[in-house]
Design brief:
α3 links the parallel β2 and β3. The chain is globular and about 50 Å long. The longest helix has 18 residues. Helices cover 42% and strands 14% of the residues. The protein is an alpha/beta fold. α6 packs parallel to α7, α7 runs parallel beside α8 and α11 runs antiparallel to α12.
Length: 320
């Protein structure tokens, strides 16, 4: 079923929610080695900017990942969260991501009443959706809002995607995310996929989100394309900081949205204080030819990350 565009460039959409993923997707750039000052300032900037949700990082298993090798936001222990936010007596909601197969969710995700976390985001591939549903139902039973991110959907055929969306529609999840893991999609493809997801959402009373990567300089374009179809949860990161080519820029998104509650100046002040320094200290992310090539080829960015880490520039050889 084709859908009409929802709203116009000048209209106000109260259903829209903005999610800051800087610590979680950006943490993949520097192994989550953010200073407490950075995290606290980002938290305060998001409050001032009117951002709706802040994703603090992962709930990763300490049996699988060695805490000595990662910063604290790989694990998001309750004491570390509270050291930054206290009891979070603000309108900003806090989120964490839990990967299927990489989280001791029954043990490490507390009951909602014992935590400052508001939302658990489950990340899954198409073939692990049954395990994702078990995690979603566990988080729902504990009292959390929930989302599910189906990763690498650019590699999934239509029949499998339809089946997966149907299963997720029938479970307790609140928001289903359209994810462009490899930065491979163009706006026309996002339009078609967003309509597919939104049709499932309408059938089962769900919301749809968009999480875009910037391999082809299209993360912002794809985000506002999905938004125009009716997608309401929008992921972005400050200065686009995220794995590989990074994500939709928060500065761009807040400048585009017409809701007067959003204030891009608070984010720009944060960029001035922190993001330029991060790059000077050697954190590397953002559009580059190797990421363009993995995006065009619909390939995981790991090969491009290795290429860039080796400081190579033989792009034609890399492409071939």
């Amino acid at each position: 079923m084709a859908r009409d565009r929802k709203g116009s460039l000048v209209s106000f959409r109260p259903d829209i929610k903005v999610m800051d993923c800087t610590l979680r997707d950006g943490g993949l750039v520097n192994n989550f080695a953010f200073t407490d000052e950075f995290v606290k300032d980002l938290y305060l900037a998001n409050i001032k900017a009117g951002v709706d949700y802040m994703e603090f990082g992962y709930k990763a298993s300490k049996e699988i990942f060695d805490p000595k090798s990662f910063g604290k936001w790989k694990f998001c222990d309750e004491k570390d969260l509270r050291a930054i936010v206290g009891d979070n007596k603000t309108d900003l909601k806090l989120a964490v991501m839990a990967d299927v197969g990489r989280t001791d969710f029954k043990k490490d995700i507390l009951n909602r009443k014992d935590s400052v976390i508001d939302m658990v985001r489950v990340a899954t591939y198409i073939n692990t959706i049954p395990a994702a549903i078990e995690m979603i139902e566990d988080a729902k039973a504990k009292g959390y809002e929930t989302t599910v991110n189906i990763m690498a959907v650019s590699k999934v055929n239509d029949e499998d995607l339809d089946g997966g969306l149907e299963l997720l529609g029938q479970c307790g999840v609140d928001v289903i995310y359209l994810v462009d893991s490899f930065g491979a999609f163009y706006p026309e493809q996002i339009e078609r996929l967003a309509d597919k997801y939104l049709n499932v959402a309408a059938k089962y009373n769900k919301k749809i989100g968009i999480h875009a990567h910037n391999n082809q300089q299209l993360a912002f374009a794809n985000t506002i394309e999905a938004l125009s179809r009716g997608t309401s949860f929008l992921d972005a990161t400050v200065s686009g900081m995220g794995r590989g080519a990074g994500n939709c820029y928060m500065e761009l998104l807040l400048s585009f949205l017409r809701n007067p509650k959003y204030n891009k100046l608070a984010i720009m002040s944060f960029v001035e204080k922190h993001m330029n320094r991060l790059k000077e200290e050697g954190a590397v992310w953002g559009y580059d030819i190797p990421y363009l090539l993995t995006g065009v080829l619909n390939a995981h960015p790991s090969s491009a990350i290795n290429f860039i880490n080796q400081q190579r520039s033989d792009y034609a050889m890399f492409y071939q």
